[in-house]
Each structure stands twice: as structure tokens, then as C-alpha cells.
Amino acid sequence: MTFSKESDSLNPIPSPTNFREPFRLALLGHPVGHSLSPLMHAAALKFLNLAGSYEAWDVSDLKEAVEKLRKEGYRGASVTIPFKREVMALLDDLDDQARAIGAVNTLIRQGVRLMGTNTDWEGLFRALRRVTEIKGKQVVVLGAGGTARAALYGLISEGGNPVVVNRTEEQGRVLAAEFGCPFYPLTAIGELKGDVLINTTPVGMMPNTDASPVPAQVLHHFRLVADVIYNPLQTRLLREAEQAGCAVLSGVEMFVEQGAAQFRLWTAMEAPVDRMRQVVREELERREKER
User: Where is the active site (predicted)?
Assistant: First the structure.
């Protein structure tokens, strides 16, 4: 499988003046109570004085939720765990990136049609580019879900050399074969060395903050450790990576950047990234103080 950074992506061009009228956005996932997407997007809408709203839906029936988006005229939606792959079959079309990744995290209304794209990879790589070059780097990707797919797409597009590591061997082997890269079971993590380790699994996410996807003693094999988890601000994985002398990258930057990419698609306006980052960090710090 080959990828190009120039792949066609969805390019809806709504007039910004249309967004002075009320419009609605939603988050589809299960569970969604922990998500800061509603807070982040509401802050962006308010900052730009747009008459939009963003709702969190804890979805039990995905087909029903997508039909509600259609019937009630929602402008778009975010899609999170566990629906990033399942939602693809319910849409009218996908852009090239979503097809190549095999997962969707963003829905966009174009007329009467619902289109799917993926901004996870863009968020991850906007954050990664601030701390490292990707081209030629050896990168271990932990996980085999939708975010792992986005990471692999981005790594290959940027000229990196990814390796898939997953607890469930069958799922990991299938994913690695699809993207044309090596696979190792999680039990072999101690044998691997590389420039970057990216955790795309939910291991260590609230409320299970005492968990880490890999043993601390293997972390010195990597120069940079990145975690897509943004809640808590610093996962056990990142704490132990710092102790091992690694540079670390928090999931907050990736989360904010993928959300900013969604916002641009929904509104055709530049997202207020600094404000979005500010409200996310403030809320996470508040929650940590309360624990």
C-alpha cells in the first residue's frame, strides 16, 4: 500500500457568513463522559462568535445516531471509540485519506450527503513535527485500532519506518500486512529499539491511570515517547519515559490539533488553536487538583 501526502481530501467550502446562523455539531462515541471535545469546540465557537453548538452523544445504536444527524440537519460530527471503523459503512462517501487509513473521525455534511474524513493523523503529525523529523525514523506503534491506522498512514506518508506492536496478535498482523510493515507481539517489546514509540491504545487513560502499555524497563530503547491519551495530562507511560531519559509528547497537543483540523472543515475558518489548547489544559489541571 502506498500513500501520498497530496491525497485528495474533503474540501467543503461553506461561506463563513452562513455560520452566523445557528448550526449543530455532535460527538458520537461510547463512553463520552470523559471527552473534552465538547468543551474545546464550544470554546472555539464562542471565541469566533459563531452561533453553533456541539453535543456529546453516548451512542448505543450507531445507525440510529447517524440517521439523526441526517434528519436533523447537523453540520458535522466527531467520531470516537469504538465507532471509527463501523461508521464508514453508514456514510455517503469517504475522502482518499479516510479510505487509506480505514477509519473516520470526522463527518461533514455536504448538501444532503454525509462525508467521512480523518483528522487524527493530521493532529498527531502536527504535534510530532514540532519535536522530531519523521523521515527515516524507526517508529514503534502500539495498538491496532483506528488511531493506530491514522498513525501508520501518517508515518508512511512522511517517510518513516513503522513497526506495529499489539497485544492481540491476529489483529496486529492483519493491520501490519495491510500497511506493509513488520509486526511484533507485545511480548517482544523488550527486543525492539527505535527512535520513537507511539502509544495509540487506551491503556493509562482515565480512570485507569496506574496502567501503562509497556514495562518501564524497555523505554530507554527509544529517544521519544508519545502518548495519544490526553486525560490525564501526563500518563504513567510518559512519567516513566521521562525517568528513563526520553523526550515525551503529551496527547494534549495531538487532541487539540485534530480538533482544530475538524473545526476548519466544518466552518471554513481558521481554528483558534491557542484558545482551544488553553481550555483543555485548564480543565485537565482542574480535574487533577480534584483527584
Answer: 84
- Residue 18, pLDDT score: 55
Q: Which residues are annotated as a binding site for NADP(+)?
A: 96, 228, 251
- CA distances 119 to 19, 259, 262, 287, Å, are 21, 8, 7, 27
SS3 253: helix
Which residues make up each annotated binding site? 35-37, 80, 96, 105, 120, 228, 230, 251, 258
pLDDT score for 12: 44
Share of the chain above pLDDT 70, in %: 93
Strands 76-79 and 106-110: antiparallel
Q: Domains in the chain, ordered, with CATH?
A: 16-118+256-290 (3.40.50.10860), 122-249 (3.40.50.720)
**Cα gap 223→134, rounded to integer Å:** 13
Residues making up the binding site for shikimate: 35-37, 80, 105, 120, 230, 258
Considering only residues 291 and 50, tell me which one the structure prediction assigns the higher pLDDT. 50
**5 class by beta-carbon count within 10 Å (0-12 exposed, 13-18 middle, 19+ buried):** exposed
- pTM value is 0.88
Q: Is the pLDDT of residue 2 over 70?
A: no
pLDDT of 256-286, one tens digit each? 999 999 999 999 999 999 999 999 999 999 9
Q: CA-CA distance, 104 to 86, in Å (whole number)?
A: 9
Query: Closest Cα partner for 231 from 214, 263, 215, 255?
Result: 255
The residue type at 111: G
Q: Give residue 41's pLDDT.
A: 98
Q: Which residues contact 247 (CB under 8 A, 6 or more apart)?
A: 131, 132, 223, 224, 225
Q: Which of 84, 135, 137, 289 is catalytic?
A: 84
Active-site residue, 289 included: no
Q: How far apart are CA 23 and CA 97, in angstroms?
A: 26
